[in-house]
Structures are given as C-alpha cells and as structure tokens.
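Human
Can I borrow your eye for a moment on a structure tokenisation matter? Give me a protein, with the fold worked out from its sequence. Write it directly below this note and I will take it from there.

Assistant
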Amino acid sequence: MTRHRMAPADAAWLRMDRPTNLMVVNSVMWFEEPIDAISLRKVLQERLVDRFPRFRQRAVEDHGVWWEDAVDFDLEEHLHAVQLPAPAGRTELEEFVARQLSMPLDRARPLWDLYVVEPYAGSGCALFFRMHHAIADGIALARVLLSLTDDPAEEVQIAEPAEEHGLSLIGALDGMWHEAIGLATHPLRAATLAQAAVSDATALAKLVLIPADHHTALRGTAGGEKAVVWSEPIALSRIKDFGHQAGATVNDVLLAAVAGALRTHLVRRRSPVHDIRAIVPFNLRALDRPLPAELGNKFGLVYLSLPLTTARRDHRLREMSRRMTAIKHSAEGFVAYGILELIGLAPAAVENLAIDVFASKGTGVMTNVPGPRRTVTLAGVPLRGTIGWVPTSGELGLGVAIFSYNGEVTVGLCVDRALVPDVKELLADFTTELEELLSSAAQVLSPR
C-alpha cells in the first residue's frame, strides 16, 4: 500500500477539525438543466479522481500523518442523490447545505463528497461539493472544480496528467478577475515578497503580537449550528464602472459594502461598534500555472481591518481602498504560511493553542475567488452560478465569500447561528448597502 507523508501545512488543517467548525471547503454549483448521471461520473473520474491522487487517498495518522492509497476506492461511495422538499428552490438548498456543514467527513474514506440535488429550481439541478482543507486550499479547490468544466467558446485542450500534472485552465479561466485578494501572478513580485518575508520582523510581530479583536455581538462561543445564504447575481460591470470612477477596485467597493452591512447589523443588535478584523486567505500560488497533481495548501493569512466605525459611505470606501492597498504590498501572507507549516509540525496541544490565538485576532473569514468571464459547461450543461466557503477556525462564526463568474458577482454568507442569528437580514443589509453606495456616485466621486 502506497503512502506519502502529508505536508506540514496540510497536516495542520487536517487536525484543526472541531465539532463547532469543521475544516471543510463547501461549494455549490447550480444549473438550469439536469446533468446526465453517466456523463457526470465520467467527468469526475477523468478530471478529478484520475488527475488528482488526493481524491482517491485517505488520511492516516500513524507515527506521523500520511496520504494512503484507498485500495477499495469506489467513486459511487462519494456521490449522494438528494431531493429537496418542495418547492426545491434556493431557500431549501441553503437549508440543506447548512445542515451538512456540521457533519464530519468519513475519515475511513478519501475526504470529499458530492451531493447531486435534482430537481432544483424547477427543471434544473445543483451540485454541492465538500472537500477537506487538508487536500488543498480554497483557491486551488475552486480551480479543481472549474477544471471539471469546459468553455464552449474555445476548444480547450486538456493535457494528460503525466504531461501537465494538473489542468492549466488557460481556456476556462481566460480573463480571470485579477482584482481578487491574492498574489499577482508575476513571478518577480512573488520572489520579492518572499525575500521580504524572511527578514520582515514587522510583519511577524504584527501577526503574533496584535491583540485579540474587539468584542462585538459577532464574537463569542460558537454553537455549531450553521446557516448559509447567498445573494442574487450582481452585475460586475456596474461595480467595475463605479469603482473606476471612484479610484477604487471592485474588491474595495464590495468590502466597503460588507463593512457597512456589518455596521448596520451591530447597531441593530445594540452591540458596540468597532473596526473588526477579517482573516483573509492570501494566495501564494501563481494563477497562470498548472495545479500540481498533489495539490496541497499554498497560502498565507492576512488580517484586514474593516472600517465599521467610519460612518460616511464615501469615507468608508476610501479607507477600505487605503487598507486594501497596504495589504496587497505586505509580506504577512508569506510569514503566516511559514507559521502554518510550523503549526503542522507541533504537538496537538500546541497546535490547538496556536489556532485559538490566530482565530482570536479576527472576527470572520473573507474570501474572493475569481471565475471565468464566459459561461462554462459541466458535462455539456451550462453553469448558471456558483458560490463556496472556506472554513472558519476556532470559535469564529462568520464567513463571507465573493465569487465572480460570467460578468456577475455572487456574495455568500456562512455563519454560526449562535453568533449571527439573523443571517438573512445581514445579507439584506449588504444588498442595501451596496445599492446605496453605487447610487451615491455624486457624493463618493466628489473632490477629496
């Protein structure tokens, strides 16, 4: 039986599971037509299981942590048919997804599952993927899922695993939204930041010595019961045009709206309002290169302070833009990656303490995943939309996900009900805040 020692960073994520917060990346894809079952299985076998060995290997802890080939691997054990209660729409799918988030993956099998929901929203279907963070980071897993799709506008040539060790996605991801939070693809910038991280005592001190985040109604003891919601699609062009005129990126605009929504949320709950820190995964893998067959985690973490105490929307957007610019030129992501590798080598008690310390410095996790600009298909069926969440660690109970696809942006919330009991109102706050921001162009664009 073949074994491969698990990389320290991957082992850290494997051992981070807690009953209140499982380290599982959860993603939903929805379609307006059903997908042929035989065609779906063929795609999964060829582009997931055969291409990336981790999807046919189990995690084993035996005098170390290992990836071990599952000699009895059966694709069918990972596929689950689901029928939602009527009317089988988005609300019912959100409730189904929320219930699954507290269910651990079976450690006796490879650490992933796929739920096929049919029918969905009339005559369509949905796919709900669950993949353990030990397999790979959220950006890599998003690319894995997109590698299951094809771009009808191009003849996408998929290389054999022996040649490329992973899908390049040059066709499917042509025109990626490069304003996503993460490292630019240019290797010179990566080398510069990596070199800076080695000697950047300031970045290390900030990560280790910053105090716990402010206490608000969003922080406390997680209960384990989850809730998820996601927005209606938002036209990316409208946000991009507004941001261009305001001298801000799409990310700046969206995160300013998130900050405004959280401010409204705290005021409604009669909570103290403070600037709070979001823990942001910082991609360290070049997006224009093929994924390695072994996948793995290649990212750091940065703390982004959200300007909740800034009352005026125009001031909040400018402050958000300033803070985002500082984050993009920071070496903190590389430093945090090194710390995560060290955590993976530490005894369990030390690891648990380190994770609690890391989590205590933030209030939630926020991610931004870029997707294709054009419609892509899976087994010949057009993908209508998608959203996904990376897990929250420790006692964190707020996850915000932003996914851009086919000229639209979807924003999803994943929360612990004990900490955020009114998630639908929070999503409505975001929608209102974004609309008010985009409608206040005259004020935002006024001279500074």
